[in-house]
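Input:
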Amino acid sequence: MMHIFCPYCGELREEEEFHAKGQAHIERPIEPEACSDAEWGDYLFFRNNPRGIHHELWIHAVGCRKYFNITRHTVTYEILETYRMGEQPGITAETLAAEQLAQSAAASAASSTTQQTGDARP
Amino acid sequence: MSDATTLDPQAVTDADAATRSQTSVIDQRPALDVHLQTARSPLAHLFTARADANAGVVLEEKAFLGHLMLRGDPAQSGFAEAVEVALGLALPLTSSTLNLNDAGVSIQWLAPDEWLIIVPGEEAFAFEQALHEQLSGRYQVVNVSGGQTVVSLSGAQARQVLMKSTPTDVHPRAFPVGRGVPAVFAKATLILRHVSAKEGESEFELVIRRSFADYLGRWLLDASEEFGVCIKA
Ligand SMILES: [Zn+2]
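Output:
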């Protein structure tokens, strides 16, 4: 059993109350007539299937019945954030990569410090 | 154009002020004599009176209440005040909050722009009119009385029945008096409200759709059986 934070109810609620509705932030072309077949087909049928961060549209079906967005990790299933319609994600593949880079840089700096002090040990 | 005046925004405003509301509202409840002879509540066939002095669970259908769905923007100036004047109850602005009074009137937060109002059946029409009279701008009031019913669940083992039926946390710490939420219940859905707790015994209200009433009524009777059931009718 998982709890999901609904940004409209403002609280954690039971997983069973929610339904996933696919990829988030898909915008309908403003002028469908001006689209090429490829563009229109892309809008209608093609979805991302990333390994890692995915932004998804969910609905609190047995609850406030509002749609909202979830940033989810498709490998760990971890829900990293939920946010309202019209808002942008705070966590993306890019911010996570930058964070990991900073962490590994800090780790390698720490390990080189350990090596230096290690020399002094008997 | 002869109808130009009716399109004049000022004229519309004046007409609005004169009639208070241009929404036509009809009394959905038939005359009392007709009502008493013909009306059958969604659970009338299941919840026939059953006495049990040692019952751990007490069930009662609160039939023929007035159910009104209210929608609107609480940030709109005057909205919350208008609802309070019409109902005599404050509009709950916090998630999952239920406000109720001794006159049998309640209003429950369902979503940031949606509330469920339950009133005594014979007063539904008057409350509906009062809401239209007080509210202005963009809002909606829909009488859904015919579509749902209320079951009162109380008794020493009431919470055990809920725990068998819903994934929602009903521990008093997580589900205190004055909290109400839509919930998954026996794979169906309903609205669950904690109405009162007297001497440690809680009363819950289950707002059930008419189409789920037979199934959920049978589920409740079955789930309550082991604790002993008393049915008030
Ligand atoms: Zn919600």
